[in-house]
Specification:
Structural class: mainly alpha
Number of helices: 2
Number of domains: 1
Strand content: under 5%
Radius of gyration: 16 Å
Distance between the termini: 12 Å
Number of strands: 0
Largest sheet: none
Length: 68
C-alpha cells in the first residue's frame, strides 16, 4: 500500500470519526428534550453503528499483513 493510500484512509477515518461524534451529540441532545422522535433516534444510532464498523474496517486495512 502506498503512502498516498495510507493518507487517504487516514483522512477518511478522521471524517467518519467526526461524523460519528456529531451524531452522538445530536442523539444525546434529542434524548434530553421532552418529546423524542424515537424513529429518528433509532436511525441515527444505526448510522453510528455503520460508521463505527467502517472505521474499524479502515483501521484494519492500515495494519500490515504479517504473512506477506
Amino acid at each position: 500500500m502506498s503512502d498516498e493510500d495510507v493518507k487517504s484512509i487516514q483522512r477518511r477515518i478522521i471524517e467518519l470519526q467526526s461524523e460519528h461524534r456529531e451524531l452522538d451529540e445530536v442523539v444525546a441532545n434529542l434524548t434530553l428534550g421532552g418529546a423524542v422522535d424515537q424513529l429518528m433516534v433509532t436511525r441515527m444510532k444505526k448510522r453510528k453503528l455503520l460508521l463505527k464498523d467502517q472505521i474499524t474496517r479502515l483501521k484494519s486495512r492500515l495494519i500490515p499483513d504479517l504473512d506477506a
